[in-house]
Amino acid sequence: MDIRVEIDSAEARKALADFPGVMGSNVDLYLLRAAGEVAREAKIAAPGDLSALKDSIRSIKDGHLAYVVAPGVQYGAAVEYGTGPAAGKASYFPNRLALLDYINTPSRRGFKLAKKGSGKRQGQVDELQARSWALARYIFAHGTKPHPYMAPTAEKMRPRVEALVKEGVEAGIREAFGS
Length: 179
What we know:
The chain is mainly alpha-helical. It folds into two domains: about 10-75 and about 145-175, no CATH class; about 85-140, no CATH class. It has helices spanning about 10-20, 20-45, 50-55, 75-80, 95-105, 105-110, 120-140, 150-175; strands at about 60, 65-70. A two-stranded antiparallel ribbon has the order 1-2. Helix 1 crosses helix 8, helix 2 (about 20-45) packs antiparallel against helix 8 and helix 5 (about 95-105) crosses helix 7 (about 120-140). The longest helix has 28 residues, at about 150-175.
């Protein structure tokens, strides 16, 4: 999903031809602002209260007058589109180490870890590994449902991005022609 904005005015074309640096810097400034606003809304829409997914969403410059807003975690697309049978796709076996990290968070673990090196701690580690294996088998059999957050954000923010780009073009024209 992407948001593309086309500006088709004779005044903007003339300003771009005569003053490309002025127009580019003004539009880029407003695009940066738009990308930041989209990233902020995507963080709000992403599932989970205090999640790595929310924290990883960033806006990155991707060329001349282009920005990308995307999550930095590998599983971002799996959350957006779902996986396996739950999303109408083929089954796959997920990475158990990534699931172990997920299960090992204090809120999901359900117990306080014993002192390192103790026999009790080894039993707890074994239990967490067994849980990650069980969760991986469950995901293989059933998949994960999609939880879209980027597509709805793109649709919600499209009018705002278009308005900001038009403001940037107008600011560039004002600076170029002094009006």
